[in-house]
Backbone:
C-alpha cells in the first residue's frame, strides 16, 4: 500500500472514530445532578413580578402564569422552590451572580446573552397575529391590499403593518387607542382584519366566547426560561421538566388558566 | 475497471498538494476577513445648530454600545432634528479605562465629535467599574459592574478628571454615578449615602482641578418608595437628607434626579408614597430646607413607558399626551429645572423586555409617534391631529 493510500485510510479512520466517539459521548451523557444544579437544596427563581398575567405581587406573595409554571417545574424536579421578586434590570445580574438559580419572567430569548445564559425551549409565543372573521379569512398577505386593518396606535402592530405595506399594497388603516378596540372593530365589522398580539386575542376571546376568528401568525415572540451558562445541570433539569409538562398537557392547562 | 479506478486515484493524489494550497489559502482568507474590518470613514458633515423653541428638551442617548459610527451620527442627527438641545450620555469607566492608567477613548471621541458637530450639549454620566478596580467576588458572590469598593474611589475620581480634561471644551456637566439609592446600582450592597458623599467629594475635587468651569451633578437619584433598612434601596427623600447631613452640599453644583410618570398623568398631584412625575417637587423642598435652592435640578431621566403588559406602563396614546404635558408643566412651573431629559432616545439593539418601550426611536431607526410629538412641541410645529379613531360603537 502506497504512502498516499495509507494517509487517506488513516484520515478516514480518524474521522469515523471521532464521529463514533462523539455519538457515544452524547448517548452516555450522565444524568443531570440535582445537588449540583441547585446546591441550596431549593430552586431559587428570579422573577420580575410586574408583568401580569405572567407575574404580579399583591404584597403577600407573587402569583401568575410564570409562578404556576415554576411551581409545576419544581414539582417535576421534586425540589422546593423560592421566589425572588427582582426588577427587570436586575434579573440577569441576579442570575449571573448566583443569587438565583433560574429566571422565569416572560423572558424573550436574547442571542446577545447566550455567552452567559442558556435558554430552555419556549413555553409561550406572544407574536403578532393577523385576525380575521372566521367566515372571511385572509389566507394570503397579498390579499390584504385595500382591506380595512385595525390596530393599536403607536404599538408594534403599527410597525408590523408598515412592514406589510412595504411588501404589499397599502391598506386602509384604522388606528385605535386600545388593542381591544381594534378587535371590537373587527367583531363589529368596521374592519376586515385586526393586528394584535396573542395575549390580547386570548383575553378578548374569554370576554366574547361566542365570537370566532381566524388567525395567521405574523411575528414570533417566544418566552423561555434562563439558567446560568455554566450551570448546565440546572438547564437540563428545567428544560426536561418543561418538556414533560408540555407532553402531559399540564403547560396548556396553566396557560388556559391565565389566558 | 480496476485500472481506471487506480488511474483516477493517482490523479486525485497528484492534485492533493494543489488542493492543500487551496485549503490553506481559503483558511487564511477566512481568518483574515473575520478579524480585519475596513476602517469606517464617516464624514462629520457641516456643523449644525439646533433649531428649537424649547431649550429644556433633552434626551438620554445610549451610544456607548453603538458599534457603527454611521449609526452614532444618524442618532445625533435625529436628536437635533427633533429639537433637543442636550443629551445625557453614559461614559462607562470600564470601557474607557480597561486597565489601570491605560485609557482607550476611541468610542468617546467619536460620540463627542459627532455631538459637537450636531450642536448638542453633552451631560456626561459616569459609572461602571472595570474588573481591575473591584474584587472578583464579595461575600461569596461575583461582584457586578456597579460594585465600587471604597478603595477604588480615588481611581474613579482620577477617571472623572481624565474625562473632564480630555473634553475641556465639549463636556462641562458630569453626573457622578447613577441611582446610588438603589442597591442594584450600588453593586447589590446596602445603599450608603455617606460613602456616596465621599465619592462625590473626591470626584468633585478631581473634576474641578481638571476643568474649573465644569459643573458636577450629584445623584442621579431614582424614585423609589423603599424605606430605611430595605435590601432594595432607600427612597430618594431620605437619601438626599442623609447626603446633606453627611456634608454633600459643597460638592455638587446641581442635583440630578429621575422623574418617571409611571401610570399617572404629568400633572397628577405629587405624592410621597406613589411614583409620579411631580414627586420630585418633594426633593426640591428638601433642597430648599437645606438652604441649597440656588442650585438647579437636572431631570436626567424621565418619561412614560408603553409596553402592552408591564404594570408600570400606559398606552402609546397616553404616553404621547403625558410626555408633552410634562414638558409644558415643567416649563410653566419649575423654573429651577434646567433640563428635562427623556429616557431613552434609542437602544443599539432591542433589550427584549419592557424597557424597549421607553424609547423614541427603534434600533432600526423607525421613528415612533412620540418622536414626532416631541418634535412638534420643541420646534413649534403644528402638524395637526396625530390621531386615533374613537372606540367603535355597537350598531
Residues:
Amino acid at each position: 500500500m502506497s504512502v498516499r493510500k495509507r494517509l487517506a485510510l488513516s484520515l478516514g479512520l480518524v474521522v469515523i472514530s471521532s464521529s463514533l466517539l462523539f455519538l457515544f459521548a452524547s448517548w452516555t451523557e450522565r444524568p443531570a445532578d440535582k445537588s449540583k444544579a441547585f446546591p441550596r437544596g431549593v430552586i431559587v427563581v428570579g422573577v420580575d413580578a410586574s408583568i401580569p398575567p405572567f407575574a404580579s405581587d399583591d404584597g403577600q406573595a407573587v402569583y401568575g402564569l410564570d409562578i404556576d409554571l415554576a411551581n409545576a417545574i419544581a414539582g417535576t424536579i421534586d425540589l422546593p422552590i423560592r421566589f425572588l421578586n427582582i426588577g427587570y434590570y436586575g434579573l440577569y445580574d441576579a442570575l449571573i451572580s448566583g443569587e438565583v438559580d433560574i429566571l422565569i419572567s416572560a423572558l424573550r430569548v436574547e442571542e446577545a446573552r447566550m455567552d452567559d445564559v442558556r435558554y430552555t425551549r419556549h413555553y409561550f409565543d406572544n407574536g403578532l397575529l393577523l385576525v380575521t372573521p372566521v367566515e372571511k379569512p385572509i389566507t394570503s398577505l397579498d390579499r390584504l391590499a385595500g382591506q380595512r386593518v385595525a390596530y393599536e396606535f403607536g404599538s408594534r402592530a403599527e410597525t408590523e403593518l408598515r412592514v406589510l405595506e412595504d411588501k404589499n399594497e397599502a391598506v386602509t388603516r384604522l388606528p385605535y387607542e386600545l388593542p381591544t378596540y381594534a378587535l371590537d372593530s373587527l367583531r363589529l365589522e368596521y374592519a376586515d382584519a385586526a393586528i394584535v398580539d396573542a395575549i390580547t386575542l386570548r383575553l378578548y376571546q374569554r370576554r366574547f366566547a361566542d365570537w370566532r376568528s381566524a388567525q395567521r401568525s405574523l411575528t414570533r415572540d417566544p418566552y423561555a426560561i434562563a439558567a446560568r451558562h455554566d450551570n448546565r445541570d440546572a438547564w437540563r433539569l428545567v428544560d426536561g421538566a418543561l418538556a414533560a409538562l408540555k407532553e402531559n398537557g399540564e403547560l396548556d392547562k396553566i396557560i388556559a388558566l391565565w389566558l | 475497471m480496476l485500472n481506471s479506478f487506480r488511474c483516477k486515484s493517482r490523479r486525485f493524489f497528484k492534485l492533493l498538494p494543489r488542493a492543500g494550497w487551496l485549503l490553506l489559502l481559503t483558511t487564511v482568507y477566512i481568518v483574515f476577513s473575520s478579524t480585519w474590518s475596513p476602517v469606517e470613514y464617516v464624514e462629520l458633515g457641516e456643523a449644525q445648530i439646533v433649531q428649537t423653541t424649547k431649550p429644556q428638551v433633552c434626551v438620554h442617548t445610549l451610544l456607548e454600545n453603538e458599534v457603527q459610527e454611521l449609526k452614532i451620527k444618524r442618532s445625533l442627527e435625529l436628536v437635533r432634528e427633533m429639537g433637543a438641545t442636550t443629551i445625557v450620555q453614559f461614559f462607562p469607566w470600564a470601557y474607557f479605562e480597561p486597565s489601570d492608567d491605560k485609557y482607550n477613548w476611541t468610542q468617546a471621541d467619536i460620540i463627542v465629535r459627532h455631538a459637537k458637530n450636531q450642536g448638542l450639549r453633552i451631560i456626561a454620566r459616569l459609572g461602571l467599574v472595570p474588573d481591575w478596580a473591584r474584587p472578583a467576588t464579595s461575600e461569596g458572590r461575583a461582584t457586578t459592574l456597579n460594585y465600587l469598593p471604597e478603595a477604588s474611589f480615588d481611581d474613579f475620581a482620577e477617571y472623572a478628571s481624565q474625562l473632564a480634561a480630555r473634553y475641556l471644551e465639549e463636556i462641562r456637566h458630569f453626573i457622578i454615578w447613577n441611582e446610588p439609592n438603589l442597591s442594584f446600582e450600588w453593586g447589590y450592597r446596602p445603599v450608603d449615602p455617606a460613602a456616596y458623599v465621599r465619592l462625590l467629594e473626591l470626584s468633585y475635587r478631581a473634576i474641578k482641578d481638571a476643568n474649573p468651569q465644569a459643573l458636577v451633578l450629584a445623584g442621579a437619584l431614582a424614585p423609589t418608595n423603599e424605606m430605611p433598612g430595605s435590601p432594595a434601596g432607600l427612597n430618594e427623600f431620605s437619601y438626599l437628607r442623609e447626603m446633606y447631613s453627611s456634608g454633600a452640599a459643597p460638592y455638587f453644583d446641581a442635583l440630578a434626579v429621575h422623574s418617571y410618570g409611571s401610570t399617572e398623568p404629568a400633572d397628577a398631584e405629587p405624592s410621597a408614597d406613589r411614583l409620579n412625575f411631580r414627586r420630585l417637587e418633594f426633593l426640591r423642598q428638601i433642597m430648599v430646607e437645606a438652604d441649597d435652592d440656588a442650585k438647579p435640578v437636572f431631570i436626567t431621566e424621565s418619561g412614560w413607558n408603553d409596553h402592552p403588559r408591564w404594570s408600570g406602563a400606559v398606552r402609546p396614546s397616553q404616553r404621547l399626551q403625558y410626555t408633552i404635558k410634562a414638558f409644558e408643566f415643567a416649563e410653566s412651573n419649575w423654573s429651577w429645572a434646567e433640563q428635562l431629559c427623556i429616557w431613552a432616545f434609542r437602544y443599539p439593539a432591542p433589550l427584549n423586555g419592557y424597557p424597549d418601550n421607553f424609547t423614541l426611536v427603534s434600533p432600526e431607526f423607525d421613528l415612533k409617534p412620540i418622536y414626532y410629538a416631541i418634535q412638534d412641541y420643541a420646534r413649534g410645529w403644528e402638524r395637526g391631529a396625530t390621531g386615533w379613531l374613537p372606540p367603535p360603537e355597537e350598531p
